[in-house]
Design goal:
By secondary structure, the protein is an alpha/beta fold. It is built from 14 helices and 11 strands. The longest helix has 24 residues.
Length: 458
Amino acid sequence: MLNTLTLKKAHQAIKSKDISINELITKCTEVSQSKNNDINAYTYIKEDANFQEQSNTKISGIPLAIKDNFCTKDMPTTASSKVLESFIPPFDSSVTQKLRSSGAVLIGKTNMDAWAHGSSTETSDFDVTKNPRNTDYLPGGSSGGSAAAVAADMCIAALGTETAGSIRQPASWCGIVGLKPTYGRVSRYGIVAMASSTDSPGPMTKTVEDSAILLNAIAGHDPLDATTSPQATPDFTASLQKPIKDMRIGYIYHNLAEFEETKSRFEEQLKVLEDLGATVEPAPTFDPHYAIGVYTIVQRGEVSSNLARYTGIRYGGDRSHFGDEAKRRIMLGTYTLSKGYAEQYYTHANKVRTLFMRDFQELFERYDALVSLSSPGFAKKRGASEGQAMFGELEDMLLEPSSICGLPGVSVPCYRDETTNLFLGMNITTPWWKEGRAIQIADAFERATRWNTWRNKQ
């Protein structure tokens, strides 16, 4: 089946003329349309998607799904909110423009938590996305639609965004690979902003190799985004198929009560890293519970600022179309930024954020990488987030420290429960600008284990 190919395999098949680009696009579009009534991974599927750019790249002709907060000039961009239900941007985001220039084919926009507020995709104004591994369960979020589309072979690869876990957590729950780059590695221009100081676009793919290929296509300095780094972008595929012998890896958050049910399964996977020649040992670090408070204050404050522009004058509907979750975050954020409280809350939270950064700096003087589970447990059942104001923060707890610090990380499948068919993901965090090292470790782990369902088919 063409839609089940990895990005690397699809590129090879196109290059060798074993398949045509139009055959691949047609198959992915047909499967997306047939499965979407059940999975609801997409908010929009482009019926006339076709190959236009005659580019000789590794993503040329590859059908990709794009999270619905990336501006696309030929498709709606709603951020899964009724506020933007009728909005079609007059321009592309820098990332989607890069993809088009490289010959990628954007076949649709994926569902998400409205405005990226959540970790379940249950806050979407366009219905809940289901986890393709077990449709009684959630896919995670906020990039749940992208994770589900990849896991269900409704595309070859997808893009998501992460503010505090929104790439890696749904990747973990859906049994795929999610790569969050260093903050500033990939342009945010033309992406509906959630928390401007932490938002990071990144790949969501079937294999680690696919993530490296896709990151090559989207990374780099952008004059339209002053937060992007001017430093040269390395070839991330150069980190593939390299040994991790003699690396020092610290595993973190192993003593948390929330971790108890999955701790033994995760520790078994640490032995794989040791068998590959790495030194693995427990590493002391800040309690991630502190990151919940930091993230809550910073994110709500920046949400309040960013959503202030949606008045109904420029974009789509007026503010009466905001959902309950958006209203809660706007109110809390406005309060924390108000006169007399900004220093007490927002400024104080950023001071604690700096302490987290210093803690990571010290740890990376000793360790090449830090590993943990991507989420404390398996995917939760549909409906689990209802009435739970801090659902996302608790499910993303193990990722929030690295996200608020702008660090890169990769979530790679590390366990599958045979009864439920649900997955756990291993998060590999490395120093700033060292995505290649995270890719190297994740790739080595993936090749040494049986958890990746697409690699097993090859």
